[in-house]
Amino acid sequence: MKVRPWPFLLYVILCLLSVGSRGNAQTTVKPNVLLICVDDLRPELGSFGAEHISSPHIDALAGRGVSFQRHFVNAPSCGPSRYTLLTGRYGPAGNNALFMRAADTANVPPSMPEYFRSSGYTTVSVGKVSHHPGGRGGPDWNDSTIVEMPEAWDRHLMPAAKWKHPRGAMHGLAHGEIRSDAGGMDVFQAAEGEDDIYPDGVITEEALHQLGLLTAADQPFFLAIGLIKPHLPFGAPQAYLDRYAGVEFPPIAHPEKPAGRTTWHGSGEFMKYNRWGKNPNEDADFAEEVRRHYAACVSYADAQVGKILAGLQRSGADKNTIVVLWGDHGWHLGEHGVWGKHSLFEESLHSPLIVHYPGMKRAGARADAIVETLDIFPTLCELSGIGVPEFTEGISLRGILEQPEASGHPAVAYTNKAKTIRTDTHRLTLHDDGFVELYDHTTAGKETVNVAEENPEVVESLRLELRKRLQ
């Protein structure tokens, strides 16, 4: 059959125009997503009211976005907290939650990156985004046959560099020092050198490389970057510790161990490191050193955030990118006599959340609404215009982003022994054997005085709400 040249040529031109039009529409309609996860980050930042902390880059992001001053995670531990972030659903309380999900992929909904990937996004993770940096299992967390979230990422990367493997980098100190026996590794350290003498500097370099590849491609991207510090051990370049020379730190709030029954614990994760025979609950000078090294790690992580955001701006993709900064849980620095996470007190569950997107009308606002990590998945779906899947259990925060003075909703969290709910005025913690803690946040005592016996109606109301949420 003979084809007449002009109609055929016109057909080809129309097809090319159609493809180009779809590509342009995709860039316009589907914004990119940059998700920055920071491990063990308390909301102790300049933009959250901490004047003694140097966090200029995170604060600058808060100045362009909305900072959620009362964001709470759904579990006070890395794995289950990241499970709720990445699945939009309540899950198991253990650190292997995402591997448990991976074992039954056929019967569970897609993860957030998988959902974005199925919606036309290129998905890339760098560093600690799921529980294991790089998202794999095995003895050294680099076994490509054991994946935390199958089908989630086009590329999931963990540059181990001189730390040899992801497990080594996770708890690595300067110049490739790997934790073998925690008791032989210092609980804090400040070494002279550039940012790449610690793992987060290398993670940031790889993240910037991936950002360059993604912004050069004609497809929307979902890039998740997981920074390890300020996770234990507290190691950061000396320059970041130097920032705190002469800086006065506020006193530790309610440093005493609770008298009654609570979710208090003995700070085992912290205490197993080499502490030179010192206990921060008994040695005020040592407690001060610990707090300063933690702060140095925060400033080090903040510097990596600054590099990432500067790279996004240089690429020009910032004009069409949603940016979320999220702390995977809080961390006690002596409050209630705890040094670590894993409790159901406020200090373990309260973490920073900042959201920025181009054209937002209330840039720089602080939202005091109570929100939870579970809300991030539906929020990103709504902001991206890809539709919120029915299986997500959180509530989109778009309304609060547009009106930061709007109300939020109670936040729940859980461990394998208890669960808790936080409202505007109270926190109720319900132990598995029925024991109840109730704290009134409208009083000076807050979470130091259990008022459950005096408030049976409040206890019953919150108990019912908690059970309804965590059926």
TrEMBL record:
Keywords: Calcium, Hydrolase, Metal-binding, Signal. Residues 31-386 form the Sulfatase N-terminal domain. InterPro entries: Alkaline_phosphatase_core_sf (IPR017850), IDS (IPR035874), Sulfatase_CS (IPR024607), Sulfatase_N (IPR000917). Its cofactor is Ca(2+). Its EC number is 3.1.6.13. Pfam families: Sulfatase. PROSITE patterns: SULFATASE_1. It is an enzyme of class 3 (hydrolase). Gene3D superfamilies: Alkaline Phosphatase, subunit A (3.40.720.10). SUPFAM superfamilies: Alkaline phosphatase-like. Residues 1-25 form the signal peptide. One of its GO terms (cellular component) is cytoplasm. One of its GO terms (molecular function) is metal ion binding. CDD domains: iduronate-2-sulfatase. PANTHER family: IDURONATE 2-SULFATASE. Belongs to the sulfatase family. This is Iduronate 2-sulfatase. The lineage of its organism: Bacteria, Pseudomonadati, Bacteroidota, Saprospiria, Saprospirales.
